[in-house]
Write a structure and sequence with these properties.
Length: about 290
């Protein structure tokens, strides 16, 4: 029985290592804007570059401009049903004026053996029809196993912009690792630079369509598209697709006066299902002032 138990343990560790390697290879959590934030974003296949909400602290910092309510939020991502490769996140957004919003985010992926941490803070400012944002991130990757111990750190800047073409059409662009930073350590490993651009289209009050393309240094273009539909007042359904890897995304959300709850799933062609959950709490809201800029 002990030999059988040891065998299954080895198999489990092997599968876990394979999943971590696959995730890093596909840039889901490695360099190139490593931690998408919010189940709303995941439900839309992370096609969020032109969107403005409090999750913009992790998706396009320019989207913080115009946020009307101070908000705190937490997120949890369970990837492919494997232990040790989950993501926990927390953040806060504070509007300083009707055109200036600030915020910070903290996220941790992995466990004691392998983990990545991202801590960031930034601000977005709106001038007429244009919003610009800047964010600084502290990244740390650590490996601590019986065969290898490694820790590398870096400071990374990101920059974003959103332009309001009309009341129904928005254009966004975002660049991660503007200064082409490197990790600390002997290898001086360079962090990938990621550029994404896309649009948000609102054909009606209940439907929003978004699409974007992303280029990460030496990787091919990735295309994403998402649809959000308000089926009932304050109740939303979402879906989306992404090309690299080819994934399908689905989600639902509810916006109350104080609480915003979002849930999403997405499928990976080899690894299966992932689940995403987010909870937002508006610190200063009432029925007349509960709407966040969409």
């Amino acid at each position: 029985m002990k030999e059988q138990s040891a065998y299954f343990t080895r198999q489990k560790n092997f599968l876990r290592s394979f999943v971590i390697f696959s995730i890093i290879s596909f840039k889901s959590f490695a360099d190139g804007n490593p931690f998408p934030i919010g189940a709303r974003a995941w439900g839309l296949a992370n096609a969020t570059v032109a969107r403005s909400d409090y999750y913009a602290i992790g998706n396009n910092i320019a989207g913080l401009a115009g946020i009307s309510n101070p908000t705190i939020f937490s997120t949890y991502d369970s990837h492919y049903g494997f232990d040790g490769i989950n993501t926990l996140g927390f953040g806060a957004v504070i509007p300083l004026s009707k055109d200036l919003g600030t915020g910070f985010s903290i996220q941790r992926f992995g466990d004691k053996t392998y983990n990545q941490i991202a801590i960031g803070m930034g601000a977005g400012h709106r001038i007429n029809r244009f919003s610009l944002g800047l964010k600084i991130n502290y990244l740390q990757t650590a490996i601590n196993s019986s065969t290898i111990t490694l820790s590398k750190k870096a400071l990374v800047f990101e920059f974003g912009g959103i332009a309001m073409i009309s009341s129904k059409l928005y254009f966004g662009a975002h660049m991660f690792n503007v200064t082409q930073s490197h990790y600390s350590g002997e290898n001086h490993e360079q962090i990938d630079t990621a550029l994404k651009t896309g649009f948000l289209y609102k054909p009606s009050k209940t439907i929003q369509l978004s699409a974007e393309i992303e280029k990460v240094t030496t990787y091919r273009l990735n295309f994403r598209a998402g649809l959000e539909y308000e089926v009932l007042p304050n109740f939303f359904v979402r879906t989306g697709i992404a090309s690299r890897p080819q994934t399908n995304h689905f989600g639902i959300g509810f916006k109350g006066i104080k609480f915003h709850i979002d849930y999403a799933v997405h499928t990976h062609p080899q690894l299966g299902w992932s689940h995403h959950f987010s909870l937002g709490y508006l610190l200063n809201s009432n029925k007349e002032k509960s709407k966040i800029l969409e």
